[in-house]
Amino acid sequence: MQPATRASPASLPPPSQGEGSRPATETVELMELSLVSDDLGTFTVPLDGPGTEVPYELPEGTVVSTALTFRLGADTDGLVFETIRIRAGEEPVTRRIALGSFRAGGPYEIRLPPERLPLGRTHCGTYAVTARLSDADGLEHARVRHLFTIVRRLPDGVAEADDPTE
């Protein structure tokens, strides 16, 4: 499992354009991003439109893998997938995984190494996640934002829901 690293909010540059006449977004098309858990199944993250602001509820300590499906319009060297996880009042946590170089075509399907979500009451709450695909030159090709909420897992394995009266 790749270790999480700290990042500053400044590490999120705005989407950039490719050199030459073709925008970077034409080189890599992110077709699907899913969260996969042996315990919970598969959650497809909306790439845009309705549903992007609805957080997924995930029990603390759950092991989750990210699955990517993408297509390439041109050969791409050094493709990197990066997630930046932010929770109010905490430092951002960045996870970068080198995917490699790919020829034009696809779709390519990649399932990333699993990651255990934080465990403990202090980590429960809503996180904003930005996922990006960029190349070896640092050129961003795709960006997706989504939310998830870590909920407390009770001893019998059931997730504890927030009390609406609090």
Short key terms for the protein model shown above:
six-stranded mixed sheet; mainly beta; disordered N terminus; 166 residues; five-stranded antiparallel sheet
Description:
- The protein has 166 residues and is an all-beta fold.
- The chain is built from no helices and eleven strands.
- The protein has strands spanning 5-6, 28-37, 41-45, 56-59, 63-72, 76-86, 93-102, 105-111, 115-116, 125-134, 140-151.
- It has a six-stranded mixed sheet with strand order 1-7-6-10-11-4, with no helix packed on it. Strands 2, 3, 5, 8 and 9 form a five-stranded antiparallel sheet that branches.
- It starts with a strand and ends in a 15-residue tail after the last strand.
Binned, the helix content reads under 10%
Provide mean pLDDT, rounded.
80
Note the beta-strand portion: over 45%
Order of helices and strands: EEEEEEEEEEE
Q: Decide which structural class fits the backbone.
A: mainly beta
Quick one: biggest sheet? 6 strands, mixed
The unreliable regions are 1-25
Q: Can you tell me the overall shape? A: elongated
N- and C-termini, Cα separation: 37 Å
Question: What's the β-strand tally?
Answer: 11
* Number of H/I helices: 0
Radius of gyration: 17 Å
> Strand sequence of the main sheet, in spatial order?
1-7-6-10-11-4
Provide a quick synopsis of the model.
The chain has strands spanning 5-6, 28-37, 41-45, 56-59, 63-72, 76-86, 93-102, 105-111, 115-116, 125-134, 140-151. By secondary structure, the protein is an all-beta fold.
